[in-house]
Amino acid sequence: MTDIQAPDTSSPPNNDMVGGPRRVVQIGETRYTLLGTAHVSAESAADVRALIRSGEFDAVAIELCDSRHHSLTHPDALGEQDLFQIFRQGKAGMVAASLALGAFQQRVAEQSGIEPGAEMRAALEESRNAGLPLLLIDRDVGITLKRIYHNVPWWQRFSLFSGLLGSVLSRQQVTAEEIERLKEGDVLESTFSEFAAESQSLFVPLISERDRYMVLRLAEDAGPGRYRHVLVVIGAGHMKGMAEQLEQPLPADPTPERRRLEATPPPSKVWKALPWAITALVLTGFAIGFSRNTELGWQLVAEWFLINGVLSAAATLAALAHPLTVVATFFAAPLTSLNPTIGAGFVAAGVELWLRKPKVRDFSTLRHDVTELKGWWRNRVSRILLVFLTATLGSAAGTWIAGFRIAGALFGG
């Protein structure tokens, strides 16, 4: 039977100067020291350095996933990506959300003088210098966002993510309260904290699932007997949950459960069929209109093109798109709205990317530019993302408004 000892809150020898909260769990011959850190704290970074330099540990696990680790070690990683592929793969929204969160993080750094995640950088550097294995145990941030999206009721999704982007983009000054929240969790957790406190459907994928996921990753990568003493660097908000999980018997094979926590529900068949149903209804409306009166048929077609085209073009104009992009969107949106395999945003972003290809300096200044609202329009990379998102929203609005207009003309008497 696995030997599980109660948490030991005493300080490790020779490290009395380490001030961060710790929990120690002994499982068989392996000891796990959970260090609760503040993501905006020079003291936490110093604690990490002191513990790793003590020589007590033979492995270090940190609250990072592969993508966040890559972003931390390659801050200009977006410049290495093909923007056209980002739009093709439907990742524009995720990239925009990541930039928004990064903007919040950058403002914290500039106003507090402390770079969020300094303790993770310290762990990376010190473990490399000491030649210790580094274990990335957190779940991918994209999967967490998707599970949040699928876990909350559909009527809360728009307000949740519009609130996320709106609050991050509009606040030029980071308040003392926001910095305090960052001392308990990372940027993602602090951004959603006001929602998570009152929403179990949000708390589960954001906090409790990640507690369990990180414990499962420890069981896979640093299971009992593999290492003698593992330092686990996590946000203070995860320490209690992870300690409680570690005190319970670990599964013999943690991989199946870990994979279940990585799964995202497939899109609903209803939502997948909806665009095709709208297309069929609109085309049917055209056919009914022409069958009644040729003039009525052409009127419906004209209204569809004008409403969809004008709203989509106006949306891209608000994003300060190139005039040719605005014109292209005006003509493309009514057609793409009848073809669910391609969106108006994809066409608009493609034209904008062709006309205003980002330069090297746009990628190098991106993280700083998006800390200001006007910077999203000034930087060519972020502006292309805005063009994609605004054209998509404009076309969606145009589709519904024009669709109701057609229905009213045919059946409204």
Structure in words:
The chain has 413 residues and is of the alpha/beta class. It folds into 2 domains: 22-105 and 114-165 and 173-262, no CATH class; 269-411, no CATH class. It has 20 helices and 5 strands. A 5-stranded mixed β-sheet has the order 1-2-5-3-4, with helices on both faces. Strand 1 (22-27) and strand 2 (30-37) form a beta hairpin. Helix 4 crosses helix 20 (380-411) and helix 13 packs across helix 14 (294-318). The longest helix is centred in the C-terminal third of the chain and has 32 residues, at 380-411. The chain starts with 21 loop residues before the first strand and ends with a helix. Pfam families: TraB_PrgY_gumN (PF01963).
Summarize the structure.
This protein is α/β, with parallel strands linked by helices and 413 residues long.
Task: Give keywords.
413 residues; alpha/beta; 2 domains; 20 helices; 5 strands; 7% strand; elongated; disordered N terminus; transmembrane; Pheromone shutdown-related protein TraB; transmembrane helix; TraB_bac
How are the SSEs placed, and which strands pair?
Elements lengths: L21 E6 L2 E8 L4 H12 L5 E4 L3 H8 L9 H6 L3 H21 L5 H13 L3 E3 L4 H11 L2 H17 L5 H7 L4 H10 L3 H22 L7 E7 H12 L7 H8 L6 H24 L1 H25 L4 H14 L7 H12 L4 H5 L1 H4 L5 H4 L1 H32 L2
Parallel strand pairs: 2-5, 3-4, 3-5
Antiparallel strand pairs: 1-2
Helix pairs in contact: 1-5, 4-7, 4-20, 6-10, 9-10, 10-11, 10-12, 13-14, 13-20, 14-15, 14-20, 15-16, 16-20
Protein name: Pheromone shutdown-related protein TraB
Keywords: Membrane, Transmembrane, Transmembrane helix
Pfam family, one: TraB_PrgY_gumN
